[in-house]
Amino acid sequence: MPSELASFSRRDLLSLIGAVSGSAAMYHAMTSLGFASDSGYKGPIKLDGDPKGASVLILGAGLAGMTAALELRKAGYKVQLLEFNNRPGGRNWTLRGGDSFIELGGFKQTCEFEQGLYINPGPWRIPYHHRAVLDYCKRLGVTLEPFIQLNHNAFLHATGAFGGVPQRIRDVKTDFQGQISELLAKVTQQGKLDEAVSKEDREILLQALKSWGALDGNYAYKANLISADFRGYAKGPGGGLGAAPIPGEVISLPDILKSRVWRYLQYFALHTFQTTMFQPVGGMDAIGKAFAREVGDIIQYDAKVTRIQQDDRGVTVTYTNPKAPATAPATPRQAKADWCVCTIPLSILSQLPVDVGDPMKAAIDAVPYSGSVKIGLQFKRRFWEEDEAIYGGISLTDLPIQQIAYPNTGFNGTGRGVLLGAYLFGGPNAYEFTSMSPAERVARAVEFGAHIHPQYQAEFDNGVAVAWHRIPFTLGCAGNWSDKARAEHYDNLCQIDGRIVLAGEHASRIPAWQEGAILSSLDAITRLHDRVVKT
């Protein structure tokens, strides 16, 4: 055994196997992290009972707000909805050519993508087990298509490893898996596992390792046609003379371990990101638009909430037009209802005067929001397909851009293409990019991306960069609960306070996902309806 591996215990090896395979050895760890449980959605809710003409004011036309509007109106409530933006969806947002927006600091960006190309700056994928989102897509006629999370031909990249040369996911995964299998096979052959497995199980284990790890007859992992069936070839099989395949060289286990690119393999194994994943055809905002087709007539757009008041008779919300010029500010207006479902992000709500009790107010103030930056880059041609045969999927890197995601539509086409040139979620890199101007963010994404794709410099066309802490209607990406804060404040946040109840991804155990927003809304309005019917 190489000296570099001498310090690795059996537990270490099994952990590494879990990172590669997502196997049962890692199930307990995944469960404890909350990754191994499905959405709690059990089908459409039924709000039985007569609301007796009760009215509800909903704040925010994101998915949580529009879910509440759709279901409450269906149940017989008088519903009004106030929305800060001039469009539905909230963070369910798609940018296309001609779209423009202004972030804090006054920077205005206008997307210059070619017609038909787009980027989703907010949610961009739907796991197969997010049953609520999928059900509403079906009910509202939103057509879905596959989102390719794992593409074995995409890259893993570490600046200080392999001379900075990106490695195919397939090569790292296969070589890592194969050499770990070889080590375990040696341990098994030497009888080191006798106390854990029977003789019969040992023979079965050896056969399993041989199959799973692409080992040869001597339980060794080498560069041969056996491993090439998994990792690919230096020269693939062809036709005619000289058509025999040639296996590629194996990346050594010490090199893989030192590179630490094995960390990225677990990203694809997590339950949240497992196949099959989906995206709406034409952009994620197809979902928001579908909801708006049902409830758009009750949405008041360009309505910036400035105060929320309540008493024992009802709720009064003061709002203004956020587009009114500073030289002639809009006259404040008021909307009133018997009840209120508030889906305003806590990053905004914490800055507003809200008539709620101390427990809910403390909960609203307890949750910071994650920093996130997404950068869409348009290129003159789809070089990732033409030059490198990458069709969809994600490349991961230790560079500040963190990942590059390739489009899941328009495969093998000609002309321009748009990829996600950076997705920074949390950590110092996200805050660093947030502090830059949009043009600087795009330039840095091109600079860093060229380490993975040298074609960037020659093929780059234009880009757009969304830094969520600078987006006025959220001031952050998603609620970032700590375990301590959740234990102390989560239940208080979700309680009905007088005539007000909160909903949104921040009021769920699936933060930062559309599923969490919808499930939170369904739970909130079910409890609210129960109270109304009994009042």
| Main beta-sheet annotation | 5 strands, parallel
Helix percentage range: 25-40%
First-to-last CA distance: 73 Å
Uncertain stretches of 5 or more adjacent residues: 1-14, 20-37
Describe the structure.
The chain is 34% helix and 19% strand. By secondary structure, it is of the alpha+beta class. The protein has a 5-stranded parallel sheet with strand order 14-2-1-18-24, with helices on one face. The chain has a 4-stranded mixed sheet with strand order 10-9-20-21. Mean pLDDT is 91; it is low at 1-14 and 20-37.
Q: Top keywords for this entry?
A:
single chain; 535 residues; alpha+beta; 5-stranded parallel beta sheet; 4-stranded mixed beta sheet; 18 helices; 34% helix
Short description:
The protein has 535 residues and is α+β, with helices and mostly antiparallel strands.
